């Protein structure tokens, strides 16, 4: 793949899952020196999130509140890195490019990102992506 054929624009966010956000805020804020840019309680989405920013990349710290996948991740792995989300210019084009490589979407369609208003996202099927959890994010125009 040449430079002009690159699918990703940047790393949009890195998501960590923890059992209790409040227990981890001192680590991210005091030890790592990150500044909290947003905190969202999202009962309808099934998780709460604290958002930090490092350069152009967001750090999302998730606390499961009933979301099946986030709950399952935390039960299986404990606190830790959940996924890396990659920003793309055009989600449909990225999905087509991945389909050419045999990588299929996990869902039938993209969703509006609960933690990142103005973005839509789509998870790719880990069964078709060598076991790597790929999340694609497209920032929508206002």
List its traits:
8 strands, alpha+beta, 2,3-Dihydroxybiphenyl 1,2-Dioxygenase, domain 1, 22% helix, 142 residues, 3 helices, 8-stranded mixed beta sheet
What does this molecule look like?
The chain has helices at residues 21-31, 68-77, 91-100; strands at 10-17, 36-42, 47-54, 57-64, 80-87, 111-112, 119-123, 134-139. The protein is α+β, with helices and mostly antiparallel strands. The chain has a single domain (3-139), classed as 2,3-Dihydroxybiphenyl 1,2-Dioxygenase, domain 1 (Roll), CATH 3.10.180. The protein has an 8-stranded mixed sheet. The protein starts with 9 loop residues before the first strand and ends with a strand. The model has no long low-confidence stretch (mean pLDDT 93).
What's the helix count? 3
E-strand count: 8
Euclidean distance between termini CA atoms: 31 Å
What proportion of the residues form beta strands (DSSP E)? 35-45%
| Strand order within the widest beta sheet | 2-3-4-1-5-8-7-6
Helices and strands in order:
Elements lengths: L9 E8 L3 H11 L4 E7 L4 E8 L2 E8 L3 H10 L2 E8 L3 H10 L10 E2 L6 E5 L10 E6 L3
Parallel strand pairs: 1-4, 5-8
Antiparallel strand pairs: 1-5, 2-3, 3-4, 6-7, 7-8
């Amino acid at each position: 793949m040449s430079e002009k054929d690159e699918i990703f624009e940047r790393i949009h966010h890195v998501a960590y899952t923890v059992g209790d956000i409040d227990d981890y805020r001192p680590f991210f804020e005091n030890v790592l020196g990150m500044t909290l840019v947003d905190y969202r309680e999202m009962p309808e989405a099934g998780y709460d999130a604290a958002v930090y920013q490092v350069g152009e990349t967001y750090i999302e710290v998730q606390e499961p509140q009933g979301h099946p996948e986030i709950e399952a991740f935390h039960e299986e792995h404990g606190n830790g890195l959940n996924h890396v989300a990659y920003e793309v210019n055009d989600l449909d084009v990225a999905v087509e490019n991945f389909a050419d490589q045999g990588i299929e979407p996990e869902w039938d369609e993209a969703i509006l990102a609960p933690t990142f208003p103005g973005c839509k996202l789509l998870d790719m099927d880990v069964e078709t992506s060598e076991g790597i959890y790929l999340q694609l994010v497209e920032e929508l125009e206002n």
